[in-house]
């Protein structure tokens, strides 16, 4: 479950987020669309607890942080960060660790799991995405698609309540492939939440339960995918959708 | 003003070492442009007696014989003693002064009255490199420490880094007699001679020098000079009475097996210095790097001052400062420890800059990913950031370590007996620069090559992890 109320974020006289309000129940996948440079990435970075914000409050599951708490590394913030896992656009795998190492590092170091326990769980995840054979390779030996799968599994291995994905389509076709979609859906249906930021509606159409449109640092409208696609309310959403179809 | 005749007279070019050279030959404190000293006055008198003009060529004591061979000057006049090994390379004139050795200790020392006491109580005796006293200590198996100049030796006696100093009476008179913290113990002993050294092929010059010396002794000029320097004693009568006065010739024949063991000991000191200093450097470099990039304004400024100070001043000067400066405020470290600390502090400045670059080149997102996985800063640093930065820092750090290995040779300035010092001493004592030099180079290579090899291996191992071949074909 995610709830965002009155979220504002400024940086050097530029408004990055203006009074964003959003609520999403568990078990759902939300797609955030909009032209680039309109606060989509800022929003999920705030959601992950990695980016301090100036006003408002964010709740993920049973943990909330205020603007004040988001600014200093407090105990509350560390706990809040554990609630979500994030997959960056450029993935940022740990280059000095193998595929398996990338996935088991946090479960072992943070959750103090034994190596065999962590490895056992990691291999179950790897099997779901069919990349078990790469487990002893280093990230740079993998293709972009394989790297993205590892980044997703690295986040899921910590069993977060929410999974955040930033522009996953830039790593291309793997997100279209069935097994990754199935994994995300399975993850959502087991009571979790997924938020995907993308400028590609075509990709989100097939996976997201809800769509939210962001323009000019504001969340302009949010609805079920079906309704937002077919009956957009705001003229800016209509404009964006028309543009996307042309492309 | 020189007269025309003086200008037309041939020059007697004589070599001596004016640094720490008092009272032999040294820069005149009253008139630093010119030199003074009993050897200076003697050389002037000698030249005059030979109808020549004296021309002083300042040189380095340790390599004085080599410089004579290279014809930088024609004679050595610098408290030069005849030894068996020098006899192979140099012609000796008649002696113009007979010296003896004097032992000094701290005024408060009640234990040591003779050189034998030093041996009995395991005390260390300081002396000059490659002189009669150092050879005597060497042959007698005393615990000895050789210095480049007498000031350092007596200063270390004051600081308690050595327990006694054995030196020519001339040096003792000038440097220690007036010092209220030191005292001379026992009578001067072991007569040696100062002679003029001349190239083997210049036997004609030798004859002329000998004739001149004889006349200077007989007409009282030598006595006048040495009386002026308060160095005339009853011993000097022997100069006049016999043609060949009795003095003992000290000997430094290189015993190769002993020499190799000495060098091996020196090499182990070099290893100790290099590893000790590097340990300090890599440890201290870390907080320096952090302070400079992440500290508050004060920490940042302090770190920058530290780094620029140690990078901007010569390590040799830093070592001298630590060795002779710190005792003034009551901190007296032994030479080897001073070298480790000094080199360590110096190299820490360089390591900090390597770390800084390395940490900067790890993307900020790596921190964010680690945080999002629930890692705290220390854990993220230890498990995620440091291993990546280390890989970047390793090659320049290896370079620094090899450079540090070579920089340990600066420790000779503070009388640490490491490999380069050992080379200078042994080679100068035996004039075997080539043979011992090759051995020393082999020692250095035996230490640095395995190091470079190991570092290269490690680099390769780490590199493999980040630049593997892209296996694009295996994508499902």
Overall description:
The complex is a heterodimer of chains A (247) and B (476). Chain A has 247 residues and is an alpha/beta fold. Chain A has 10 helices and 10 strands. Chain A has helices at 40-48, 67-71, 75-82, 99-109, 115-128, 144-156, 178-189, 201-205, 225-230, 235-246; strands at residues 2-11, 14-24, 29-33, 55-60, 63-66, 84-87, 162-166, 193-197, 210-215, 218-224. In chain A, the strands form 2 sheets. A 6-stranded mixed beta sheet of chain A has the order 6-7-8-3-9-10, with helices on both faces. A 4-stranded antiparallel beta sheet of chain A has the order 2-1-4-5. In chain A, helix 4 (99-109) packs across helix 5 and helix 4 packs parallel to helix 6 (144-156). The two termini of chain A are 34 Å apart. With 476 residues, chain B is of the alpha/beta class. Chain B has 3 domains: 2-96 and 195-241, Periplasmic binding protein-like II (D-Maltodextrin-Binding Protein, domain 2), CATH 3.40.190.10; 98-191, Periplasmic binding protein-like II (D-Maltodextrin-Binding Protein, domain 2, 3-Layer(aba) Sandwich), CATH 3.40.190.10; 256-468, MetI-like (MetI-like fold, Orthogonal Bundle), CATH 1.10.3720. Helices cover 56% and strands 15% of the residues of chain B. Chain B has 19 helices and 11 strands. Chain B has helices at 4-8, 38-49, 64-69, 84-87, 115-120, 132-140, 150-159, 169-175, 203-218, 221-228, 237-241, 256-294, 297-312, 315-325, 335-360, 364-372, 377-407, 419-430, 433-466, and strands at 11-16, 26-28, 31-36, 53-58, 75-80, 90-92, 97-106, 125-128, 144-147, 164-168, 182-199. In chain B, strands 1, 4, 5, 6, 7, 8, 9, 10 and 11 form a 9-stranded mixed beta sheet that branches. A two-stranded antiparallel ribbon of chain B has the order 2-3. Chain B is elongated and about 95 Å long. The N and C termini of chain B lie far apart (99 Å). At the A-B interface, helix 3, strand 6, helix 4 and helix 6 of A face helix 16, helix 17 and helix 19 of B.
